[in-house]
Amino acid sequence: MSNLDYLAARLHGSRSKMAEGERLDALCRIRSIEEYARTVLPDREVRGTADLQRQLIEEFISEISLIAAQLERARAHLVKWMPVRFEAENLKVLLRSSITKVNPEEAALHLMHVPGLKPAEVHALAIAGSVTDFLRVLRGGPIKKSLKMAVIEYGEDARPFFFEAAIDRGYLAELVQRFNALSDGERAEAGNLIRNEADIFHLVLMLRGRFNYGLASDQLSSMHVPGTSISRTTFADMLNDTDPLTAVNRVVMRVLDPLPFEGGKGDRDIPVTVLEGLAWRRYLRVANVTFRKSHMGFGAVVAYLAIRRIEIANLITVSEGIRAGMEPDAIRARTIPRMDTEGAYV
Question: What is the pTM of this model?
Fold first, then answer.
Protein backbone atom coordinates (compact mmCIF):
# COMPACT_ATOMS: atom_id res chain seq x y z
CA MET A 1 0.00 0.00 0.00
CA SER A 2 1.41 3.42 -0.99
CA ASN A 3 1.55 6.39 1.38
CA LEU A 4 -1.42 7.92 -0.44
CA ASP A 5 -3.42 4.70 -0.17
CA TYR A 6 -2.69 4.50 3.55
CA LEU A 7 -3.57 8.16 4.09
CA ALA A 8 -6.82 7.90 2.12
CA ALA A 9 -7.82 4.76 4.05
CA ARG A 10 -7.22 6.58 7.34
CA LEU A 11 -9.24 9.59 6.17
CA HIS A 12 -12.16 7.31 5.32
CA GLY A 13 -12.08 6.14 8.93
CA SER A 14 -12.00 9.71 10.22
CA ARG A 15 -14.83 10.67 7.86
CA SER A 16 -17.17 8.19 9.53
CA LYS A 17 -16.78 9.99 12.88
CA MET A 18 -17.70 13.49 11.73
CA ALA A 19 -20.52 15.52 13.26
CA GLU A 20 -23.18 15.17 10.57
CA GLY A 21 -26.78 14.05 10.30
CA GLU A 22 -28.08 12.62 13.58
CA ARG A 23 -24.83 13.44 15.38
CA LEU A 24 -25.21 17.10 14.42
CA ASP A 25 -28.89 17.00 15.40
CA ALA A 26 -27.88 15.75 18.86
CA LEU A 27 -25.28 18.50 19.28
CA CYS A 28 -27.92 21.13 18.46
CA ARG A 29 -30.01 19.86 21.38
CA ILE A 30 -27.28 20.52 23.95
CA ARG A 31 -28.23 23.43 26.19
CA SER A 32 -24.93 24.59 27.69
CA ILE A 33 -21.50 25.47 26.31
CA GLU A 34 -19.89 23.43 29.10
CA GLU A 35 -21.67 20.23 28.03
CA TYR A 36 -21.07 21.02 24.36
CA ALA A 37 -17.33 21.47 24.99
CA ARG A 38 -17.14 18.16 26.85
CA THR A 39 -18.83 16.47 23.88
CA VAL A 40 -16.87 17.92 20.96
CA LEU A 41 -13.51 18.40 22.71
CA PRO A 42 -13.32 15.69 25.37
CA ASP A 43 -10.28 15.76 27.67
CA ARG A 44 -9.65 19.43 26.84
CA GLU A 45 -9.91 22.45 29.10
CA VAL A 46 -12.21 24.95 27.41
CA ARG A 47 -12.76 28.48 28.71
CA GLY A 48 -15.89 29.76 27.04
CA THR A 49 -17.25 29.91 23.52
CA ALA A 50 -14.39 31.85 21.93
CA ASP A 51 -11.80 29.45 23.33
CA LEU A 52 -13.86 26.48 22.13
CA GLN A 53 -14.01 27.87 18.60
CA ARG A 54 -10.30 28.69 18.61
CA GLN A 55 -9.40 25.16 19.71
CA LEU A 56 -11.61 23.59 17.02
CA ILE A 57 -9.87 25.63 14.32
CA GLU A 58 -6.39 25.01 15.71
CA GLU A 59 -7.06 21.27 15.84
CA PHE A 60 -8.05 21.43 12.16
CA ILE A 61 -4.90 23.40 11.29
CA SER A 62 -2.77 20.72 12.97
CA GLU A 63 -4.61 18.01 11.04
CA ILE A 64 -3.98 19.78 7.72
CA SER A 65 -0.28 20.04 8.54
CA LEU A 66 -0.06 16.34 9.42
CA ILE A 67 -1.79 15.40 6.16
CA ALA A 68 0.53 17.64 4.12
CA ALA A 69 3.56 15.94 5.72
CA GLN A 70 2.40 12.60 4.29
CA LEU A 71 2.16 13.86 0.71
CA GLU A 72 4.79 14.45 -1.95
CA ARG A 73 5.69 17.18 -4.42
CA ALA A 74 2.81 19.22 -5.88
CA ARG A 75 0.23 17.54 -3.66
CA ALA A 76 2.07 18.60 -0.51
CA HIS A 77 2.71 22.05 -1.98
CA LEU A 78 -1.05 22.57 -2.35
CA VAL A 79 -2.11 21.25 1.05
CA LYS A 80 0.68 23.11 2.89
CA TRP A 81 -0.85 26.38 1.70
CA MET A 82 -4.31 25.62 3.17
CA PRO A 83 -3.54 26.67 6.78
CA VAL A 84 -2.63 30.12 5.40
CA ARG A 85 -6.41 30.62 5.06
CA PHE A 86 -6.50 31.08 8.84
CA GLU A 87 -3.46 33.33 8.79
CA ALA A 88 -5.39 35.45 6.29
CA GLU A 89 -8.30 35.67 8.73
CA ASN A 90 -5.87 36.81 11.43
CA LEU A 91 -4.48 39.45 9.09
CA LYS A 92 -7.98 40.81 8.46
CA VAL A 93 -8.55 41.10 12.21
CA LEU A 94 -5.19 42.84 12.66
CA LEU A 95 -5.82 45.19 9.75
CA ARG A 96 -9.19 46.20 11.18
CA SER A 97 -7.47 46.71 14.53
CA SER A 98 -4.86 49.01 13.04
CA ILE A 99 -7.43 51.00 11.04
CA THR A 100 -9.90 51.43 13.92
CA LYS A 101 -7.18 51.84 16.58
CA VAL A 102 -8.48 48.93 18.67
CA ASN A 103 -6.39 47.96 21.69
CA PRO A 104 -3.90 45.25 20.53
CA GLU A 105 -4.71 43.08 23.54
CA GLU A 106 -8.39 43.16 22.61
CA ALA A 107 -7.60 42.28 18.99
CA ALA A 108 -5.47 39.34 20.17
CA LEU A 109 -8.54 37.74 21.73
CA HIS A 110 -9.94 37.17 18.21
CA LEU A 111 -6.80 35.61 16.73
CA MET A 112 -6.09 31.95 16.07
CA HIS A 113 -2.74 30.40 16.86
CA VAL A 114 -1.40 29.57 13.41
CA PRO A 115 2.10 28.86 12.13
CA GLY A 116 3.72 31.85 10.48
CA LEU A 117 2.82 34.88 12.59
CA LYS A 118 5.16 35.55 15.52
CA PRO A 119 3.95 37.50 18.60
CA ALA A 120 6.18 40.52 17.89
CA GLU A 121 4.91 40.64 14.29
CA VAL A 122 1.30 40.35 15.46
CA HIS A 123 1.74 43.30 17.84
CA ALA A 124 3.46 45.43 15.18
CA LEU A 125 0.67 44.72 12.68
CA ALA A 126 -2.04 45.52 15.24
CA ILE A 127 -0.58 48.95 16.02
CA ALA A 128 0.37 49.90 12.44
CA GLY A 129 -0.57 53.52 11.88
CA SER A 130 -1.74 53.01 8.30
CA VAL A 131 -2.21 50.32 5.67
CA THR A 132 1.19 51.28 4.26
CA ASP A 133 2.77 50.77 7.69
CA PHE A 134 0.92 47.45 7.90
CA LEU A 135 2.51 46.42 4.60
CA ARG A 136 5.99 47.37 5.83
CA VAL A 137 5.64 44.90 8.71
CA LEU A 138 3.93 42.14 6.72
CA ARG A 139 6.23 39.44 5.37
CA GLY A 140 6.51 39.04 1.61
CA GLY A 141 4.30 36.64 -0.30
CA PRO A 142 1.08 36.46 -2.33
CA ILE A 143 -1.07 38.13 0.33
CA LYS A 144 1.29 41.08 0.74
CA LYS A 145 1.51 41.45 -3.04
CA SER A 146 -2.29 41.49 -3.36
CA LEU A 147 -2.72 43.98 -0.50
CA LYS A 148 -0.06 46.26 -1.98
CA MET A 149 -1.92 46.23 -5.31
CA ALA A 150 -5.11 47.23 -3.50
CA VAL A 151 -3.41 50.20 -1.83
CA ILE A 152 -2.09 51.35 -5.21
CA GLU A 153 -5.49 50.97 -6.88
CA TYR A 154 -7.86 52.19 -4.16
CA GLY A 155 -5.66 54.48 -2.06
CA GLU A 156 -4.63 54.49 1.57
CA ASP A 157 -8.03 55.70 2.82
CA ALA A 158 -10.25 53.21 0.98
CA ARG A 159 -12.89 51.37 2.95
CA PRO A 160 -11.63 48.19 4.74
CA PHE A 161 -13.82 46.06 2.44
CA PHE A 162 -11.25 46.45 -0.37
CA PHE A 163 -8.28 45.53 1.78
CA GLU A 164 -9.97 42.49 3.31
CA ALA A 165 -11.00 41.31 -0.16
CA ALA A 166 -7.40 41.78 -1.30
CA ILE A 167 -6.16 39.55 1.51
CA ASP A 168 -8.62 36.84 0.44
CA ARG A 169 -7.66 37.29 -3.21
CA GLY A 170 -3.97 36.87 -2.39
CA TYR A 171 -4.60 33.63 -0.53
CA LEU A 172 -6.96 32.22 -3.15
CA ALA A 173 -4.84 33.17 -6.17
CA GLU A 174 -1.92 31.20 -4.72
CA LEU A 175 -4.19 28.29 -3.80
CA VAL A 176 -5.55 28.07 -7.37
CA GLN A 177 -2.04 28.39 -8.81
CA ARG A 178 -0.85 25.46 -6.70
CA PHE A 179 -3.93 23.47 -7.70
CA ASN A 180 -3.17 24.15 -11.37
CA ALA A 181 0.35 22.79 -10.86
CA LEU A 182 -1.10 19.31 -10.21
CA SER A 183 -1.27 16.75 -13.00
CA ASP A 184 -4.38 16.68 -15.18
CA GLY A 185 -5.53 13.49 -13.47
CA GLU A 186 -5.11 14.90 -9.96
CA ARG A 187 -6.98 18.08 -10.87
CA ALA A 188 -9.81 15.99 -12.29
CA GLU A 189 -9.87 13.82 -9.14
CA ALA A 190 -10.10 16.84 -6.86
CA GLY A 191 -13.37 17.78 -8.51
CA ASN A 192 -12.47 21.45 -8.95
CA LEU A 193 -13.12 22.03 -5.24
CA ILE A 194 -10.23 24.47 -5.03
CA ARG A 195 -11.52 26.55 -7.93
CA ASN A 196 -15.01 26.35 -6.43
CA GLU A 197 -13.76 27.95 -3.22
CA ALA A 198 -12.35 30.89 -5.19
CA ASP A 199 -15.60 31.21 -7.13
CA ILE A 200 -17.59 31.47 -3.89
CA PHE A 201 -15.33 34.43 -3.13
CA HIS A 202 -16.24 35.90 -6.54
CA LEU A 203 -19.95 35.40 -5.89
CA VAL A 204 -19.94 36.99 -2.43
CA LEU A 205 -17.64 39.82 -3.52
CA MET A 206 -20.01 40.65 -6.37
CA LEU A 207 -23.14 40.50 -4.19
CA ARG A 208 -21.75 42.54 -1.31
CA GLY A 209 -19.67 44.99 -3.28
CA ARG A 210 -21.99 45.64 -6.20
CA PHE A 211 -25.46 45.22 -4.74
CA ASN A 212 -25.03 45.84 -1.00
CA TYR A 213 -22.47 48.64 -1.08
CA GLY A 214 -23.33 50.01 -4.53
CA LEU A 215 -19.73 49.99 -5.75
CA ALA A 216 -19.04 50.46 -9.44
CA SER A 217 -18.10 47.39 -11.46
CA ASP A 218 -14.67 48.80 -12.33
CA GLN A 219 -13.90 49.07 -8.61
CA LEU A 220 -14.32 45.32 -8.20
CA SER A 221 -13.20 43.75 -11.47
CA SER A 222 -9.51 43.69 -10.52
CA MET A 223 -10.30 41.43 -7.56
CA HIS A 224 -10.89 38.51 -9.94
CA VAL A 225 -8.86 35.37 -9.19
CA PRO A 226 -7.61 33.88 -12.48
CA GLY A 227 -7.95 30.20 -13.38
CA THR A 228 -11.38 29.52 -11.89
CA SER A 229 -14.73 28.48 -13.37
CA ILE A 230 -15.89 32.11 -13.34
CA SER A 231 -13.79 33.72 -16.06
CA ARG A 232 -12.79 37.37 -15.93
CA THR A 233 -15.38 38.04 -18.68
CA THR A 234 -18.19 36.31 -16.77
CA PHE A 235 -17.22 38.13 -13.59
CA ALA A 236 -17.35 41.44 -15.45
CA ASP A 237 -20.80 40.54 -16.83
CA MET A 238 -22.03 39.74 -13.31
CA LEU A 239 -20.74 43.07 -12.03
CA ASN A 240 -22.59 44.88 -14.80
CA ASP A 241 -25.93 43.12 -14.31
CA THR A 242 -28.74 45.32 -13.05
CA ASP A 243 -30.05 42.94 -10.38
CA PRO A 244 -28.47 40.22 -8.22
CA LEU A 245 -30.65 37.36 -9.43
CA THR A 246 -29.58 37.86 -13.06
CA ALA A 247 -25.94 37.87 -11.95
CA VAL A 248 -26.38 34.79 -9.76
CA ASN A 249 -28.11 32.84 -12.52
CA ARG A 250 -24.97 33.13 -14.64
CA VAL A 251 -23.17 30.74 -12.27
CA VAL A 252 -25.90 28.20 -11.57
CA MET A 253 -24.40 24.71 -12.05
CA ARG A 254 -20.92 26.17 -11.56
CA VAL A 255 -21.06 27.73 -8.09
CA LEU A 256 -24.72 27.13 -7.21
CA ASP A 257 -27.17 24.32 -7.79
CA PRO A 258 -30.54 25.36 -9.29
CA LEU A 259 -32.03 27.96 -6.97
CA PRO A 260 -34.76 26.73 -4.60
CA PHE A 261 -36.88 29.84 -5.19
CA GLU A 262 -38.28 31.76 -8.13
CA GLY A 263 -37.35 35.29 -9.18
CA GLY A 264 -39.84 38.03 -9.81
CA LYS A 265 -40.34 39.71 -6.47
CA GLY A 266 -37.86 41.13 -4.06
CA ASP A 267 -35.02 40.18 -6.38
CA ARG A 268 -32.89 42.94 -4.91
CA ASP A 269 -33.60 41.74 -1.38
CA ILE A 270 -32.22 38.20 -1.52
CA PRO A 271 -29.91 38.08 1.53
CA VAL A 272 -26.27 37.50 0.65
CA THR A 273 -26.09 35.01 3.50
CA VAL A 274 -28.77 32.86 1.83
CA LEU A 275 -26.93 32.73 -1.49
CA GLU A 276 -23.58 32.20 0.21
CA GLY A 277 -25.10 29.35 2.21
CA LEU A 278 -26.41 27.77 -1.00
CA ALA A 279 -22.95 28.04 -2.54
CA TRP A 280 -21.34 26.28 0.42
CA ARG A 281 -24.09 23.65 0.33
CA ARG A 282 -23.15 22.85 -3.26
CA TYR A 283 -19.46 22.85 -2.29
CA LEU A 284 -20.21 20.24 0.37
CA ARG A 285 -22.26 18.16 -2.04
CA VAL A 286 -19.44 18.16 -4.61
CA ALA A 287 -16.95 17.29 -1.87
CA ASN A 288 -19.04 14.28 -0.79
CA VAL A 289 -19.35 13.04 -4.37
CA THR A 290 -15.60 13.54 -4.92
CA PHE A 291 -14.76 11.69 -1.70
CA ARG A 292 -16.79 8.67 -2.78
CA LYS A 293 -15.57 8.65 -6.40
CA SER A 294 -11.88 9.23 -5.71
CA HIS A 295 -11.90 6.73 -2.84
CA MET A 296 -8.13 6.11 -2.50
CA GLY A 297 -6.80 8.93 -4.72
CA PHE A 298 -5.63 12.45 -4.01
CA GLY A 299 -9.16 13.70 -4.68
CA ALA A 300 -10.22 11.95 -1.48
CA VAL A 301 -7.68 14.01 0.47
CA VAL A 302 -8.87 17.34 -0.96
CA ALA A 303 -12.52 16.33 -0.52
CA TYR A 304 -11.93 15.21 3.07
CA LEU A 305 -10.41 18.57 3.95
CA ALA A 306 -13.35 20.34 2.31
CA ILE A 307 -15.88 18.26 4.27
CA ARG A 308 -13.91 18.72 7.47
CA ARG A 309 -13.89 22.47 6.92
CA ILE A 310 -17.69 22.49 6.71
CA GLU A 311 -17.86 20.35 9.84
CA ILE A 312 -15.77 22.92 11.74
CA ALA A 313 -17.99 25.74 10.43
CA ASN A 314 -21.08 23.84 11.61
CA LEU A 315 -19.58 23.15 15.05
CA ILE A 316 -18.86 26.86 15.44
CA THR A 317 -22.39 27.75 14.28
CA VAL A 318 -23.86 25.36 16.86
CA SER A 319 -21.71 26.83 19.63
CA GLU A 320 -22.94 30.32 18.75
CA GLY A 321 -26.54 29.12 18.78
CA ILE A 322 -26.17 27.48 22.19
CA ARG A 323 -24.47 30.60 23.58
CA ALA A 324 -27.37 32.73 22.30
CA GLY A 325 -29.98 30.38 23.78
CA MET A 326 -31.52 29.50 20.40
CA GLU A 327 -33.90 26.57 19.97
CA PRO A 328 -32.36 23.37 18.51
CA ASP A 329 -34.33 23.57 15.26
CA ALA A 330 -33.28 27.18 14.73
CA ILE A 331 -29.63 26.25 15.30
CA ARG A 332 -29.86 23.31 12.90
CA ALA A 333 -31.42 25.50 10.22
CA ARG A 334 -28.26 27.63 10.21
CA THR A 335 -25.92 24.73 9.52
CA ILE A 336 -24.78 23.39 6.15
CA PRO A 337 -26.37 21.78 4.19
CA ARG A 338 -29.74 22.27 5.88
CA MET A 339 -30.62 25.91 5.45
CA ASP A 340 -34.06 27.51 5.66
CA THR A 341 -33.84 29.22 2.28
CA GLU A 342 -37.57 29.42 1.81
CA GLY A 343 -38.03 31.21 5.11
CA ALA A 344 -35.07 33.49 4.54
CA TYR A 345 -36.17 34.71 1.09
CA VAL A 346 -39.17 36.92 1.76
Answer: 0.92
